[in-house]
Design goal:
By secondary structure, this protein is mainly alpha-helical. 46% of the residues lie in helices and 10% in strands. The protein has a three-stranded mixed beta sheet with strand order 1-2-3.
């Protein structure tokens, strides 16, 4: 079972504990620290510097060529052709942390692990 979660800055002390609890119960967690939009940005470029949530939205608006909407129903189709770049960038980002610590690694994401697992169910 998978759970997807943004790291909420108010819950920093509980972030690692929640991930550990999920793993203990056989649940894999795909997270993004600080925002899920990091995953979207990684479709375009490698980012290893934390930015504000407002900047994520502004950057995505510019990269997409239209206003970014958090609940977009078309974002998957818009980014699908860039998915392998996002996976490559997310893996590179995690490698930059000597000892991964989801609570403090900013920015970081493991959404690519969920995406790779989901992709394994797509017939060739």
């Amino acid at each position: 079972m998978w759970d997807r979660n943004d790291k909420n800055p108010h819950d920093a002390q509980n972030f690692n504990a929640a991930i550990t609890l999920a793993k203990t119960n056989g649940i894999k967690v795909a997270y993004s620290n600080d925002a899920f939009e990091l995953w979207y940005l990684l479709h375009f470029h490698f980012y290893n510097t934390g930015i504000s949530r407002k900047d994520y939205q502004n950057m995505l608006t510019k990269l997409l060529g239209h206003k970014y909407e958090k609940n977009s129903e078309t974002i998957y189709e818009e980014l699908k052709d860039r998915q392998q770049d996002a996976i490559k960038h997310a893996k590179r980002l995690l490698i930059e942390y000597d000892r991964p610590n989801p609570e403090t690694d900013y920015p970081s994401t493991t959404v690519h692990l969920l995406v790779e697992e989901l992709n394994s169910f797509i017939p060739d």
